[in-house]
Specification:
This is TMIG1 protein. Its main location: membrane. It is found in: Membrane. One of its GO terms (molecular function) is cell adhesion molecule binding. By secondary structure, the chain is mainly beta. The chain folds into two domains: 92 residues, Immunoglobulin-like (Sandwich), CATH 2.60.40; 87 residues, Immunoglobulin-like, CATH 2.60.40. The chain is built from two helices and 16 strands. It starts with a strand and ends with a helix.
C-alpha cells in the first residue's frame, strides 16, 4: 500500500520544540508508481504551497515557532485520497508571561481573589509570598486554585492583618518569574441606618400632625 511519512515517521507523532525555533517538516509518498499530489493542513486550515512543492515530496517550515503553535497538528494528505495521511503535533516549550490585576482595594470582611495568569509549557509550579515571606495558609481563610494557565489565591473575610504585598512566584524549566499584587484593606465603613431614620421621621411627623389637630380649635380662637 500507498503510504505517507513526515520526517521518516509513518504514524502520527509529537514533535518537541522551543519558542523561537525553526521546524522543518518533509512529507514523502511511498510505494507509488505515479506522480502524487500532496496537501498540507495546519489544524483544519489548508497550507498554501508553491507549484514545485506539491508532487511526491512536499516541505513546510514553521518559523519562528510561537505559543499559538503549541498543540497544533500539521497534517500531510494525499490529494486524490485524503484518508491517506500522517500528522505531527507540535509540543512547544515556552516560559510563563505573568499578568493579573496588581492592586486591590477592599473593605474588611469582604472576600478577594488574586489571580496570577501564567500560561506556559510544561506546566509550572507556583508559590505565594506575603511581604517577601512565605505565606502561611490558614484553613478557612486562604484557598488556593491552580490550572495550566492560572494560579489563584482567595482570602475569605479579609482582615487588617491581610494588608500587604503578595507575590506570585512561578518556577519553570529554566528559572522563575514573579509578579506582585498589592492588597489595600480599608476599615469597614459604618452603615448609615437609613431605614431607622426614615421610620423615626415618620413617627415625628405623625405625632406633630395629631398634636396640631388636637389644638386646632385653640389656634382658631386666637
Amino acid at each position: 500500500g500507498l503510504e505517507l511519512s513526515i520526517n521518516n515517521q509513518f504514524a502520527d507523532f509529537p514533535l518537541s520544540t522551543k519558542l523561537g525555533y525553526s521546524v522543518s517538516l518533509s512529507c514523502l509518498v511511498h510505494n507509488s508508481s505515479q506522480a502524487e499530489q500532496l496537501l498540507w493542513y495546519r489544524g483544519e486550515g489548508q497550507v498554501s504551497l508553491k507549484d514545485g512543492n506539491k508532487v511526491n515530496i512536499s516541505n513546510v517550515c514553521i518559523f519562528p515557532v510561537n505559543e499559538s503553535d503549541h498543540g497544533v497538528s500539521f497534517t500531510c494528505r494525499l490529494a486524490r485520497d485524503k484518508s491517506v495521511q500522517v500528522s505531527v503535533t507540535l509540543d512547544v516549550e515556552f516560559p510563563p508571561q505573568l499578568s493579573g490585576e496588581e492592586t486591590h482595594h477592599i473593605q474588611e470582611g469582604e472576600d478577594v481573589t488574586l489571580t496570577c495568569n501564567s500560561k506556559c509549557n510544561p506546566q509550572a509550579q507556583a508559590v505565594w509570598y506575603k511581604d517577601n515571606n512565605s505565606l502561611t495558609l490558614q484553613q478557612g481563610h486562604h484557598e488556593l486554585y491552580q490550572t495550566s494557565e492560572v494560579f489563584q489565591l482567595s482570602i475569605k473575610e479579609v482582615e487588617q492583618s491581610d494588608n500587604g504585598t503578595y507575590t506570585c512566584v512561578v518556577e519553570y524549566f529554566s528559572g522563575k518569574r514573579t509578579r506582585d499584587f498589592h492588597l489595600l484593606v480599608e476599615e469597614k465603613k459604618a452603615v448609615f441606618p437609613k431605614e431607622a431614620v426614615i421610620a423615626a421621621a415618620v413617627v415625628v411627623l405623625i405625632t406633630a400632625f395629631f398634636g396640631i389637630a388636637a389644638r386646632k380649635d385653640k389656634f382658631c380662637k386666637v
